[in-house]
User: Which sequence fits this backbone?
């Protein structure tokens, strides 16, 4: 285990089992449709890669990069689009893939933005959900794990662009980010 990690919150095996279940559930819901799966960079990349390999429906991929944190550990509340989609979403079924739903501000903003672009439907899949931190009324349609208000890294999630490659989700020691 990485020395900066206080404890493992979700093991590699637990993640794999949850991603498989989510992939099967989404595949069942999208049978006969061709959704556009949108990964929110950078945190969702590993989760999204594993998720789409568990999905049995025809799909397309695209990515958005957004920021509401900057170099801080707290959201500024201002969502900035750094990279927009390459594809037109009008009339498409969209699945937004996010690593974690925290305050909900970013996802609420993105969902409204994509709705304004006339998407046929918009669903959200999140590996982690921190309901206790929610500031905006938004809910993921598919959730891997509910977690408490902890500072987590690994499996794509980072602190200062580190720890993304950890195969598990760990609680970062407070003295690392304070």
Assistant:
């Amino acid at each position: 285990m990485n020395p900066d990690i206080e404890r493992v919150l979700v093991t590699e095996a637990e993640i794999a089992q949850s991603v498989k279940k989510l992939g099967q559930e989404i595949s069942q819901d999208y049978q006969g449709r061709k959704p556009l799966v949108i990964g929110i960079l950078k945190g969702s990349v590993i989760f999204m890669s594993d998720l789409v390999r568990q999905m049995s429906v025809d799909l397309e991929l695209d990515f958005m990069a957004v920021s509401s944190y900057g170099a801080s550990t707290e959201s500024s509340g201002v969502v900035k689009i750094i990279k927009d989609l390459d594809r037109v979403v009008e009339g498409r079924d969209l699945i937004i893939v996010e690593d974690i739903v925290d305050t909900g501000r970013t996802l609420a903003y993105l969902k409204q933005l994509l709705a304004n672009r006339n998407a046929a439907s918009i669903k959200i899949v999140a590996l982690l959900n921190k309901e206790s931190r929610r500031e905006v009324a938004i809910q993921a349609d598919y959730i891997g794990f509910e977690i408490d208000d902890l500072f987590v890294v690994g499996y794509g999630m980072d602190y200062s662009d580190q720890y993304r490659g950890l195969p598990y989700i760990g609680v970062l020691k407070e003295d690392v980010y304070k």
